[in-house]
Amino acid sequence: MEQLSVTKAFEGELHRYKHSSSSTSTDMVFAVYLPPQAKNHSVPVLYWLSGLTCTDENFTQKASAFRMAAKLGLAIVCPDTSPRGLELPGEHDSYDFGSGAGFYVDATQPPWSGHYRMYSYVADELPELIEKTFPVSDKKAISGHSMGGHGALVIYLRNPGAYTSVSAFSPIVHPSKVPWGQKAFQNYLGADKDLWATYDATLLIQENGANTPILIDQGDSDSFLEEQLQPNHFEAACARANVPLTLNLRAGYDHSYYFISSFIDNHLEFHARKLMG
Ligand SMILES: N[C@@H](CCC(=O)N[C@@H](CS)C(=O)NCC(=O)O)C(=O)O
């Protein structure tokens, strides 16, 4: 693992690393914020998954999360949103597919299947690496934004017991039914709708339920709300499956990190209560 930087913040440290990933067969970069408590004892971890066009740096630079993470004693791990350094055909042509848009799935279709395996990377490889490298406990939670909110919900729902809690900002809750998800799933997963369903939070919760309350924040002035996000699908599925959901519709907020930074403290406190309770 190559250390790219260490930066002091709120008495803790933000580290960035590059490592060779067995999931993606590429180098991957991730960031980890270690709160000051990590100098004395192991701390729980929140995994943050970002959205389309992002790297690890959108959250670390724009979410304003580290003051609260330092207060709560929470580490935060931010992976990238896709493999990098490849030149697959069409990979860099659009903002909502390919680089910056791995959709947290394990692709089955060539040419993506050899590298675009972000589900395995985030759900399996990265936590294993984090837990053996840093002063963290095996208590973990997961959250994310938009495509990353989709990733957080899916990884949480497919791995019962692995995460103490899940939350999301502006998540793509029903990717099989909206243009962003359909484009990604068609290209990464092919035509098999049963396979699509294993990466669709609304269908997963209908099928499997969940055993902890879920927190979602959504801005009502988000320009993607009607076409891509449609949290009402997830809300209805949670009600049918008897899963407690807090869906905060926030008046006037858009899709940006200004929205995330306005409510990130609530999400960190929500996770800390479960991780440390
Ligand atoms: N208008 C955006 C659409 C993509 C977008 O809004 N991405 C969200 C996640 S879905 C984001 O977090 N962008 C980076 C940022 O705001 O820092 C673009 O084309 O770059």
Walk me through this protein's architecture.
- The structure is a single chain.
- The protein is built from 10 helices and 9 strands.
- With 277 residues, it is α/β, with parallel strands linked by helices.
- The protein has one domain: Alpha/Beta hydrolase fold, catalytic domain (Rossmann fold), CATH 3.40.50.1820.
- The protein has a 9-stranded mixed sheet, with helices on both faces.
- Helix 4 packs parallel to helix 7 and helix 7 runs parallel beside helix 9.
- The longest helix has 20 residues.
- The two termini are 33 Å apart.
- The structure holds glutathione.
- It holds the Pfam family Esterase.
Fill in the keyword field for this structure.
9-stranded mixed beta sheet; 9 strands; alpha/beta; globular; 277 residues; binds glutathione; Rossmann fold
Helix and strand arrangement:
Elements: E1 2-9, E2 12-20, E3 27-34, E4 43-49, H1 57-62, H2 66-72, E5 75-79, H3 118-133, E6 136-145, H4 147-158, E7 166-169, H5 179-189, H6 193-197, H7 201-208, E8 214-219, H8 225-229, H9 231-241, E9 245-250, H10 257-276
Parallel strand pairs: 4-5, 4-6, 6-7, 7-8, 8-9
Antiparallel strand pairs: 1-2, 2-3, 3-5
Helix pairs in contact: 4-7, 7-9
The chain binds glutathione.
